[in-house]
Write a structure and sequence with these properties.
- With about 280 residues, the chain is of the alpha+beta class.
- The chain is about 15% helix and about 30% strand.
- The protein contains six helices and 13 strands.
- A hairpin with a 7-residue loop joins strand 6 and strand 7.
- The longest helix has 13 residues.
- It is globular, with a radius of gyration of 20 Å.
Length: about 280
């Protein structure tokens, strides 16, 4: 342990500064989105089996909803530009702009060099949860996804139904490519329905039983043409463990809705930075 300086408390007392003030960030017009949603027609329903993943497509101007249908279950969501999967969800930048957990009005932003909204959350039946006494909240962009590499590192075992592997298989099916081609495109997720935070004493990432119940949902507006991949996590409600064949798991339902017949939606343009990087 290093020597504590005399001004330690003064240093700790310095007020924090928000890294990315969002006053100039374009705000979504939720009234317009909700009006479009009322006119949108149901297109497809996909059931994601426990410990598996499935893919789905949503056109720009359409909607998709992820619903708990049989019991408390969390899901790991990847999003891609349907025309170019190199543009994919950027959880780190989304976290920097909106915070550690997402809810209605927050957006899922895409990777560099595009950095544009991919989807906007327009409905969240768990928005009542807020932040609990442990610092936990729902729908996080902190966790990376459970994966077979960390599982092997910690246990020495191979487990093939981690969310990373589930997403890899589903993306390979969606794109009709090999697992080797699909895996590098799989990325950090939006942990749908997962309740997480950081411990106050050690700063460790924690999970706790999700408050989700059958009928709860998270609903999105598609800002661009989307390919989505969702894994029903092998941790179930993540109350005790993940990457497990013993946790109680349930399916998740994905419903997609086409764009309304009103004013056509214009996809947001990719980021306007000239990419000269000072040269």
């Amino acid at each position: 342990m290093t020597h504590t300086p005399e001004d330690a408390e003064a240093r700790r007392a310095i007020a924090p500064v928000i890294c990315y003030p969002t006053d100039t960030l374009p705000k979504p017009d939720l009234d317009d989105y909700h009006a479009r949603r009322r006119e949108a027609q149901a297109e497809e329903t996909v059931i994601v089996p426990p410990r598996e993943a499935r893919h789905f497509h949503v056109p720009a101007g359409g909607f998709f909803r992820i619903t708990s249908v049989e019991g408390p279950q969390v899901g790991d969501l990847n999003l891609f530009n349907a025309a170019d999967p190199r543009e994919r969800f950027y959880s780190g930048k989304t976290r920097a702009l909106h915070g550690t957990h997402l809810t209605t009005g927050d957006r899922m932003w895409s990777s560099f060099p595009y950095l544009r909204p991919m989807a906007t959350i327009i409905g969240d039946t768990l928005d009542w949860y807020g932040i609990d006494g442990f610092g936990g909240s729902v729908h996080d962009v902190i966790g990376t996804r459970c994966d077979p590499y960390t599982h092997h590192l910690l246990s020495g075992d191979d487990y093939h139904h981690c969310c990373h592997s589930n997403l890899t298989r589903a993306l390979a099916d969606a794109q009709d490519v090999s697992l080797t081609e699909a895996e590098p495109l799989v990325h950090d997720v939006l942990n749908v329905f997962m309740c997480t935070g950081f411990t106050r004493d050690t700063g460790q990432y924690f999970m706790k039983a999700s408050p989700v119940r059958p009928g709860d949902y998270l609903e999105f507006f598609a800002e661009i043409d989307l390919l989505g991949v969702l894994s029903a996590c092998p941790g179930g409600d993540c109350s005790s463990e993940h990457s497990s064949d013993t946790a109680t798991c349930y399916p998740l339902k994905i419903e997609t809705f086409g764009s309304s017949q009103g004013t056509p939606w214009k996809m947001p343009e990719p980021n306007g930075y000239d990419r000269s990087h000072g040269r």
